[in-house]
Write a structure and sequence with these properties.
The protein is an alpha+beta fold and about 750 residues long. The protein is built from 18 helices and 27 strands. The chain is about 30% helix and about 20% strand. Helix 2 packs antiparallel against helix 5 and helix 3 packs antiparallel against helix 6.
Length: about 750
């Protein structure tokens, strides 16, 4: 079949048509796509388009090949890692990401499967707002998810072939959204491999069951030897520059951009990551039993897990063994140990006690100082200079196998934990299409990992990559200790959040700041207006959809047994989460020019102590909520409807979420803007058949079949811009009671 035949079959949607770029030799190595023009190309745009298509299909194909290692479908529904979803979620999640982002960016006009695209939208990190209750999910079949993946692959391929494309690729372009999806799937290639590594071996195909191409792709390293020496090497004082330039030639996540300059004093670093043999000494010396070696967080983790050795080790009759992706082998003493950050910190404390040296994990800047000594970066590799990018092994390998200057494994083999909690660089700007990628990790609880592992591909393998996990999480990660007599521990408590995002601080002030212009606090006023109409017998469960930074949800929690609070923006709900957990938020608001005034907020100061435990903050799309959000006595949508991309779709599904006799409360100033809602989808504020259609009339049209209007009032609101400039609006607050007769549409 020619390439033209393949493309024609794709256009027809032929389910039997082969997809391009699926040959085994196209899978690894996989080079990151540059954003710039290839000067050697006769038609640079056409060449870049084909390069993007190849990169996309290689990414989908290698992810398919990973999940093809699972022998039986039942294993897809077992939560092998308690803090993550079962594998079925990760089979579908990367595909739904392409659709969700292209749909929100308005490049896709229709969805493929709204139910799947809601169910599998969020769930990487065990964030407080991520719902990991298995009882809440009616997972689709494996065949259904694979069919969905194929359809997404065809549709995105068709989009790449026809999308507008200018070079260089910029963050506001269609190609950037495609690259976002590709790099996101490559992240999940790695996280999914960690989950499969915890799956029973009998649920995975063995080497004899694999094709020759699969064996080449998933073959583990066979070399191993005794515990190697790991001498300390001096690193001179230097200035390190962190951050990625806006005009960098490779794709980057938002936390990578910005600048920071760090002046490092001299330090010493281990020549290579700590080996299994080195860590075995800690285990045999009772390191897991000596609580003095562990941080308070580490002691809590030890008490919860009862861990006595690294996750991928097993003590057998013949000695220690290590689990790899598809096999279990005698513990290779010269391979890097794979641990979480808490275990790495405890080893450092043990080593410090034994030697009297200031042994600790490196900072991000110290890792970068080692990385700066290597004069190569991924886009220019002829072949990867370390065990990375799936170019060498589908496992770790000896820590001395890849010298890189004076050190080994600065790049590759395993990720390396740092002591640096991830925080934004100066000049950080969140990407509006993925505001929940970085912001939720800026909490002092997620430490950076650097360098990449054997299965790190694409953006992950770049020097500029900044990925962070909670300290008790497992990746294919180890650590390289340093001796740092002058450094600090760079530990953030995590209970105090200093907010700098201008939009978030404006809404924090709107929700939690002092009253302005004599107008009562709007979220609190809405709750008071509502609760006069809610009898004590109907105060069990409430849903606050479009909760922003959380004040209305917390106020409703004074009255309801439980409140689900959902917002599209992780930047907003992070504030609600922090307050609900008993933390404090610090922020500044402008007064005049460059002058600001500091604010701080906590539940105690608000008189809301004790309500946090009754609120569950979660991220979600109001127009595509998971079906589990039903059975509420009250649904509140505060100033939401005129900021939705499809308000009618939202309203049409609300009746199925409210119990008969329950209330739906909606406030809106009817500020319809094409920035948020295409004019054709405005509920009002336009003419229909030549006649004016108001927002209230539009609301009534959708709600009247299932609700009766029981109350309507004006509620003023003030949003502060500076000390002497405010936005003053009046929201129309309408309260609707769900009729007992009739069965409304059930959210799918």
């Amino acid at each position: 079949m020619t390439r033209a035949d393949i493309l024609a079959a794709d256009d027809r949607g032929d389910d039997t048509a082969p997809l391009p770029f699926s040959a085994p030799e196209d899978l690894a190595p996989t080079r990151t796509v540059l954003l710039t023009t290839d000067p050697a190309a006769a038609d640079p745009v056409a060449a870049k388009r084909e390069e993007l298509r190849a990169y996309f299909h290689r990414t989908c194909e290698i992810d398919d090949r990973l999940f093809a290692l699972v022998r039986n479908d039942d294993a897809f529904y077992v939560r092998h890692e308690p803090l993550r979803h079962p594998p079925i979620f990760y089979l579908g999640h990367p595909a739904t990401f392409y659709v969700n982002k292209l749909y929100v960016a308005r490049w896709f006009k229709t969805r493929i499967d709204p139910r799947m695209e809601a169910m599998m939208a969020v769930g990487v990190d065990e964030m407080s707002w991520d719902d990991l209750n298995a009882a809440h999910y009616d997972w689709p079949t494996v065949d259904a998810v694979r069919a969905y993946r194929r359809e997404v692959r065809r549709r995105v391929d068709a989009f790449i072939r026809t999308m507008p494309l200018e070079l260089p690729i910029r963050q506001d372009s269609a190609a950037w959204v495609v690259l976002m999806g590709i790099e996101h799937e490559r992240i999940h290639l790695e996280t999914s491999s960690v989950i499969l590594r915890q799956m029973p071996l009998e649920d995975l195909r063995r080497e004899a069951e694999l094709s020759p191409a699969e064996r080449r792709l998933w073959r583990a390293c066979t070399a191993h030897g005794p515990r190697p020496d790991n001498p300390w090497i001096d690193v001179e004082a230097r200035t390190v520059h962190l951050g990625k330039r806006a005009d960098d030639q490779t794709y980057g996540w938002d936390n990578e951009y910005g600048t920071e300059e760090v002046r490092l004093p001299p330090f010493r670093a281990a020549r290579q990551p700590v080996s299994n043999g080195e860590f075995l000494e800690f285990v045999e010396d009772g390191g897991y039993l000596d609580e003095r070696l562990w941080t308070e967080e580490g002691r809590g983790w030890l008490g919860y897990t009862q861990a006595r050795h690294p996750r991928f080790w097993r003590q057998a009759a013949g000695g220690w063994r290590q689990r790899n992706l598809l096999d279990e082998i005698p513990l290779p003493l010269d391979w890097p140990v794979e641990v979480n950050c808490l275990e790495a910190q405890a080893w450092c404390a043990w080593k410090q006690r034994a030697t009297g040296l200031a042994v600790r994990l490196p900072s991000e800047a110290q890792w970068q100082a080692l990385r700066d000594r290597i004069d190569t970066d991924q886009p220019r590799w002829e072949r990867a200079p370390g065990n990375v990018n799936l170019e060498w092994h589908a496992s770790s390998c000896p820590v001395t196998a890849f010298p890189q200057g004076e050190f080994c494994d600065v790049i590759g083999n395993v990720w390396q934990w740092t002591r640096t909690p991830i925080m934004p660089f100066k000049g950080f700007e969140v990407h509006p299409l993925y505001d929940d990628f970085s912001v939720p990790t800026f909490d002092g609880r997620h430490n950076l990992i650097k360098g990449g592992s054997w299965i790190s591909t694409g953006n992950e393998a770049l020097a500029s990559a900044r990925y962070a996990f909670r300290r008790h999480f497992y990746q294919h990660a180890g650590f390289r200790p340093v001796i740092d007599d002058e450094g600090d521990e760079a530990v953030t408590e995590g209970s105090r959040l200093y907010e700098t995002d201008a939009l978030v601080t404006q809404y924090l002030e709107f929700h939690y700041g002092p009253e302005a212009l004599g107008v009562p606090n709007f979220p609190r006023a809405c709750v008071e207006e509502t609760m006069r109409l809610v009898p004590p017998s109907r105060r069990r469960r409430a849903l606050d959809i479009g909760c922003s930074v959380g004040r209305s949800a917390l106020e409703f929690a004074r009255h309801f047994e439980h409140v689900d609070a959902i917002d599209f923006s992780a930047r907003f709900i992070q504030s609600g989460v922090r307050l609900a957990e008993g933390g404090e938020i610090h922020y500044e608001v402008p007064t005049e020019g460059e002058l600001t005034v500091a604010r701080s907020v906590s539940l105690e100061r608000l008189g809301l102590t004790g309500v946090g435990g009754r609120v569950a903050f979660m991220q979600g799309d109001a127009c595509n909520l998971k079906p589990l959000y039903t059975g509420y006595d009250l649904v509140f949508a505060g100033n939401l409807v005129d900021r939705l991309y499809d308000p009618a779709l939202f309203l049409d599904l609300v009746p199925g979420r409210v119990l008969p006799g329950g209330l739906f409360v909606i406030t809106t100033p009817y500020t319809w803007l094409e920035e948020y809602t295409p004019k054709a989808k405005w509920l009002g504020g336009r003419r229909e058949h030549g006649e004016p259609l108001s927002g209230f009339e539009g609301l009534s049209r959708h709600l009247a079949p299932w609700f009766e209007l029981v109350h309507r009032a004006d509620v003023p609101l003030v949003i502060r811009e500076t000390a002497r400039k405010h936005q003053h609006s009046i929201a129309d607050c309408t309260v609707w009671r769900r009729r007992a007769d009739g069965a409304p549409p059930t959210p799918a």
